[in-house]
Amino acid sequence: MLSLSGHIGTKASALIDGQLPRAEEERAWSHVLTCPGCRRLVEHEGWIKRRLGSLEYPEAVDPPPELLGSLYTVDMWAAVEEIEKTSRRRRTAAVVVGGGALGACVLTLLTITGGPTGRTDVPTRQSPAMIRGEQVRGPVGSPTRVETNSAPALPRRSR
Fold first, then answer.
1. What is the model's pLDDT at position 92?
2. CA separation for the pair 43, 13 (Å, rounded)
3. For 94-112, b where at least 16 C-beta lie within 10 A, e where not — what string?
4. Distance (Å, rounded) from C-alpha 73 to C-alpha 32?
5. What pLDDT, on a 0 to 100 scale, did the predictor assign at position 140?
6. How far apart are CA 56 and CA 123, in angstroms?
7. What's residue 83's pLDDT?
8. Mutual angle of helices 36-54 and 22-34, in 10-degree steps
9. C-alpha atoms less than 13 angstroms from C-alpha of 9 in its C-beta half-sphere
10. What is the pLDDT of residue 113?
11. Burial class (CB within 10 angstroms; exposed 0-12, middle 13-18, buried 19+) of 83
12. Side-chain-facing half-sphere of 102: CA atoms under 13 Å
């Protein structure tokens, strides 16, 4: 069967090899005789197949029996174990290097920020932002002092 466009297309190789059904082959050859594009395509496919068919292949050579025997005697599991040991060493080295880099980052961060503060290092100065008349308590862990804001209330300005 020809393609939707009415040309041979991908069926050219099957046409040359004689793999198409008889009725379809007849329709394809009659189309090739009248269509210059399909004729060029079929001629090109035929030329390629002739060129590939003329290539010479070297005779197959059987490997010597000593080679096959030596391949059967190789202890493959010893090679696999060696590869796994190398892999384990690399994995351990990567973990050690990664842990060292993480430790260096933490030490750098502690150096820059000044380190953690303990409960006794909490500042005792009151916050400057206080709302009028609200009671202000001391920091957590200090004796409870109660202070009141005694600032006079200012009248509101209207807009």
1. 87
2. 10
3. eeeeeeeeeeeeeeeeeee
4. 61
5. 54
6. 93
7. 80
8. 110
9. 8
10. 81
11. exposed
12. 6
For residue 142, the 8-state DSSP code is S
Find where tokens 């609200």 sit.
134
Residue 135's DSSP bridge partners are 148
Which tokens belong to 139? 């920091």
What distances in angstroms separate CA 101 from CA 92, 96, 97, 98, one per listed residue? 14, 9, 6, 5
pTM greater than 0.90 (yes/no): no
Instruction: Give the H or E element holding residue 136.
Output: strand 135-137
pLDDT, position 124: 61
Domain ranges (residues) in the chain: 9-54
Distances (CA, A) of 40 to 9, 16, 32, 55, 97: 11, 13, 9, 23, 66
Low-confidence stretches of the chain (pLDDT < 50) are 146-148
Q: Which amino acid is at 12?
A: A
Residue 4 pairs in a beta bridge with: none
